[in-house]
Amino acid sequence: MSVFVALFSGINVGGNRIVKMAELKESFDELGFADVATYIQSGNVVFKAEAGDAAALTATIESAFEKRWGFRSRIMVRDLGWLEALVANNPYPEVADNPTKLHASALERAPTAEEIARLAERCSGPESFEVKGDVLYLHAPDGLGKSKFAEVMPRTLKVPGTMRNWRTVLTLLEMARKA
């Protein structure tokens, strides 16, 4: 069996689209996945599956989720190797010990050079970012909550994704390695 992480977008934000993690875990169990574990309320699930195709797993999970909860959540399913590479390729190692300043966004696909250039034009504050494949790394020195750039990022890049702080990234990696 292979280890995967499912990163949900748009659940349990601002008291909307509430999904209890115990129920989310139960839904993964019902789909036949093994060693299912969730982490914090933003929708992070580590699990094992026989099938090794992340795209097929994403479609299965998204369909079951929408059927059960009545709304769609964009879900990024990635394997352990992807998560290990995300951490290894961190372009901001100097801030890795300050997880409120470093974030990684799992993108639905790798952005084009034009999309990245358009985003770079909007990055005028203290933030900096780098894209490596389907991961966008964001260094927000003043924190994500104060970042004006983080607010415009999704609309400007136009590549769906879901962001996690570095503490969550490292915890998910640890959980996946233990699975």
Describe the model.
The chain has 179 residues and is an alpha+beta fold. It folds into two domains: 2-82, Alpha-Beta Plaits (2-Layer Sandwich), CATH 3.30.70.1280; 91-164, Alpha-Beta Plaits. It is 38% helix and 25% strand. It has helices at 21-30, 54-69, 80-88, 113-122, 148-157, 166-178; strands spanning 2-8, 34-39, 44-49, 75-79, 102-107, 128-132, 135-139, 161-165. The strands form two sheets. It has a four-stranded antiparallel beta sheet, sandwiched between helices. Helix 3 packs across helix 6 (166-178) and helix 4 (113-122) runs antiparallel to helix 5 (148-157). 32% of the residues are buried. The model has no long low-confidence stretch (mean pLDDT 93).
CATH topology of the largest domain: Alpha-Beta Plaits
The proportion of strand residues reads: 25-35%
Radius of gyration, rounded? 16 Å
Can you tell me the CATH class of the largest domain?
A: Alpha Beta
Distance between the termini: 10 Å
Oligomeric state of the chains present here: single chain
Total number of β-strand segments? 8
Instruction: Provide the CATH architecture of the largest domain.
Output: 2-Layer Sandwich
Total of helices? 6
Q: Ranges with pLDDT <50 over ≥5 residues?
A: none
Largest sheet entry: 4 strands, antiparallel
**Averaging pLDDT over every residue, what do you get?**
93
Integer tally of domains: 2
Helix content: 25-40%
What overall form do the CA principal axes indicate?
globular
Going by CATH, what is the homologous superfamily of the largest domain? SP0830-like domains
The order of strands across the largest sheet is 2-3-1-4
Q: What class would the helix/strand composition place it in?
A: alpha+beta
Q: What is the N-to-C order of secondary-structure elements (H for helix, E for strand)? A: EHEEHEHEHEEHEH
